[in-house]
Amino acid sequence: VPTDRTSSFDKVFSFVLPCADVDVNADYTDNLSADGGLFANIPLTGEKVVNIPVGVSSFNVYDDGGLEYEYSNNADGSLVLKAPDGYLMQVTGDASVWSDTLTIYDGTAESNVLLEQKDFGSVGTLVSSGNMLTVRFASNGSITYDGIFLTVALFNVNDEHLVSVPEASDEGSVVSDVNSASYGATVSLTA
After folding, report:
1. Alpha-carbon distance 147 to 166, whole Å?
2. Model pTM?
3. Mean pLDDT, range 160-176, rounded to an integer
4. Which CA distances in Å does 75 have to 86, 143, 151?
5. Are strands 180-182 and 76-82 parallel, antiparallel or unpaired?
6. Residue 64 confidence class, pLDDT cut points 50, 70, 90
7. Most C-beta atoms within 10 A of its C-beta, which of 11, 61, 80, 155?
8. How confident is the model at residue 5 (pLDDT cuts 50, 70, 90)?
9. Which residues lie below 8 Å from residue 134, measured CB to CB, with a gap of 6+?
């Protein structure tokens, strides 16, 4: 029985009861990532807020048709993504929406800080400046296409990341002033 599920982050699921008994099986996972199946769909209309819990490393974002179906005509919906404090979001992926428009804002749509506006192709790699992003999709009433396939990765700005440089060779060497650093830190290399 298909469920009316627009996000892995939803707490309530619904379905239409058929003329028979129903067995409900819940599948739980420790893989809190896009690879583990986490997703959120942009609503057909209106605004949906998704509060992303600590522990989620990534998830996919689709239009209202989800992964399997084309998007609807006359869509005008926004998905507001709220990561935990101290986290930023990185967005990658593609839009196949032609004369329709995918818009990604840093923060809320009201902030008017535009990260990307697309009708076709890769969105590149976008990074939020804080823990909020808004993904808006608007379609006209003509024709629909495959739609939106984005991956949102979360990262803690305080996590340390290793800085690796190659060992010296006959051609020379490079030395880093640090062995690790957090997001946004300046790393100096000397040749």
Report:
1. 42
2. 0.81
3. 87
4. 32, 12, 21
5. unpaired
6. very high
7. 61
8. low
9. 78, 79, 80, 81, 104, 105, 107, 108, 109
